[in-house]
User: What shape does this take?
Amino acid sequence: MDYNKFFDDALGRLHNERRYRVFADLERIAGRYPHAVWHSPKGQRNVVMWCSNDYLGMGQHPKVVGAMVETATRTGTGAGGTRNIAGNNHSLIQLEQELADLHGKEAALVFTSGYVSNQTGIATLAKLIPNCLILSDALNHNSMIEGIRQSGTEYLVFRHNDVAHLEELLRAHPGRPTLIVCESLYSMDGDVAPLAKICDLAERYGAMTYVDEVHAVGMYGPRGGGIAERDGVMHRIDILEGTLAKAFGCLGGYIAGSAKVVDAVRSYAPGFIFTTALPPAICAAATAAIRHLKSSSWERERHQDRAARVKAILTAAGLPVMSSDTHIVPLFVGDPERCKKACDLLLEEHGIYIQPINYPTVPKGTERLRITPSPYHEDALIDGLAEALVHVWEQLELPLYAKPMAAE
Assistant: This one.
């Protein structure tokens, strides 16, 4: 039996569909973000990163780096095991207290990643609610979908951000325990959920709400609490989920909610019980980032300014910028092969790194470049990006001066 043939065939299918993924060998340099070193086949080259989810550059902030170094020097590198075996390291307790305060909740629980917090958090919650029905937005992240599947409970999908459809589903199941699951900010299109209207429906029909704020925490709201804080509905949402790996520049995921909800997940979730805890140094770094962004608005304001400028410059250049109300700047391509080729040309000829976004991250036919400016992308870098993109669009004979499109 030639088992390798199975894997070779599977990889061949990806190549044939023009969606085999190649990752560049990059080395970020603290203090020079968004500049990085690309270890290319021809040697080292300096490049500018335009697709990082370290949205605010907190991964290089002196407070964050300092907290990590000091804590690692004092306590060592590892956590020593799962919390059930090694106990809670004190830095982890401090981090969870900081997160609970950020979201105005009684408690928070940290996981090893945002993916795990959704996957095991949703599955555990739904299993603990008898006869639970999950209502899920059609564009929810894969981690949420996997959590729903692993719950084994019945679920229904409502059309993206369609509160009328959501209400139809709620009305069809009166009196049944229901968990509404959605994101606050959808990272591929950059659009925002109508959280206030979703909360209205949840309260009217007696449903619980679970909102993923992964791409919004640190970024929106007076203290960086996310879209829910910005929109004044944070107190109305039962469970908020977020990440430490994007705006906070570290690693890990979490949920925040009532003390009983958090304790129940802590006590039952396999993805929490059977995995090693985050090391103290990472927890301390994340805590430093959260504390800084609670009191500093410069990063958020500058970030929004940069995102607005990128959209304006690229639109003025005739590039097909998809409509977005947030910091996400999607650039429509619509073909997986040319999407990958555009990224290759940008990197090899212009020293610009953007990763292609193809199926299954987005539906086939909606392939795109996903550009994420940071507070540290200066005007000259933005102008250089526009010039490079126009050049690549002309090389690949992609349509310029297309009418800006609404996100799919």
